[in-house]
Amino acid sequence: MGKHIGKQSAIFENDIYILETASTVGPKEGEGPLRNYFDVILDDESFGEKTWEKAESKMIKTNMELVLEKAKLKFKDIDYIYAGDLLNQTSGSNIAIKDFNIPYFGIFGACSTIGEAMALASINIESGIGKNILVGASSHFCTAEKQFRFPLGLGNQRPLTSTWTVTGACAFIISDIKSRVKIKGITTGKIVDFGIKDANNMGSAMAPAAADVIINNLKDFNIQPDYYDMIFTGDLGYIGKELTIELVKEAGYDISKNYTDCGIEIFDKNTQDTHSGGSGCACSGTTFAGMIYDKLKNKELKRILFVPTGALMSTISIQQGESIGGIAHAIMIESL
Asked: Looking at the structure, do residues 234 and 111 belong to the same domain, yes or no?
């Protein structure tokens, strides 16, 4: 069985693989630099539905069906589902999978949800209970803006610190069936709160948690940053990325040479008017399902640290003036 390593990490002794991935994104994401990596690019953000929330659920459902098709599996082959989103009570995922008839853990880690799902699915397989686990996460620009910031109809000007919530859904099959991409270990994050209260500056709110989990991964496994070909955080954007580099540097590690953020990779800042970059559960999820997984399969990347990040806020916490705690989970992934 796996071993607890250091302060907050675990290494797996059983073979745990990412068998297949699938990604569905909105039209804006399809115009970005990663367009050729996505499986499905929607023509419009409503996806033929009457509400954006219904569109998000439809996106989750069809994308999960797609990943099963790509993996040549049926729903009866799936032991558990771990999934979540940003909608209240993870209603997007709940509605999407209600007819699948598969045991389900609905989870919430804000925009770090796909990392949490991957970690929990890996622990499940390591325990010997599950064999094929379906994990997923989603977000939608229109539903997120309406829920956390301002109704789109108001046309509010977005500050330069803001990020653009990615419209998309990702789904992965975590399995004991051998593939070219393996999960070696995890470092579970903890809530880190630097007192940021601005919902339009989530990069600064999440960066301390990202830095903390990266530092603890390096300490727990007694490795240096160059152990990894690349370190990918979830959705810190330009501001959060620079802050993360500085915070990790204060702990004695330089990650500047092999570190990027999915929120920077998914949009073109200069041509797409996304200010500080991308955010949302689907930001890291679709970037991994597309570009990162492809590079691992083709051995362009040998070892990476995948660190989805999340801002743990709600409509209630914002209204009551609470600060925004950050969370991040690190997944150690290797190509074979």
From this structure: no
Nearest Cα neighbor of 224 from 200, 194, 257, 197 is 257
Round to whole Å and give the CA distance between 134 and 64.
8
For residues 223 and 305, state if they share a domain: yes
For strands 168-175 and 132-139, give the pairing.
Answer: antiparallel
Residue 4: is it exposed, middle or buried by C-beta count within 10 angstroms (0-12/13-18/19+)?
Answer: exposed
- Token pair 């796996």 is found at 2
Q: Which domain holds residue 171?
A: 3-175
Q: Strand (E) positions, the chain? A: 3-5, 9-11, 17-25, 40-41, 80-84, 104-106, 132-139, 164-165, 168-175, 181-187, 230-233, 259-261, 278-279, 303-307, 309-312, 325-328, 330-335
CA–CA distance, 142 with 55 (Å, rounded to integer): 10
Number of domains present in the structure of the chain: 2
- Give the closest residue to 160 by CA, choosing from 244, 277, 271: 277
Say if pTM beats, i.e. exceeds, 0.85: yes
Same domain, 228 and 161: no
Q: For each successive 10 residues of the chain (336 residues), what is the average pLDDT?
A: 89 96 97 97 93 93 98 97 93 95 96 97 97 96 64 51 84 97 98 84 89 98 98 94 97 98 93 83 97 98 98 80 93 97
We report the CATH number of the domain holding residue 194 as 3.40.47.40
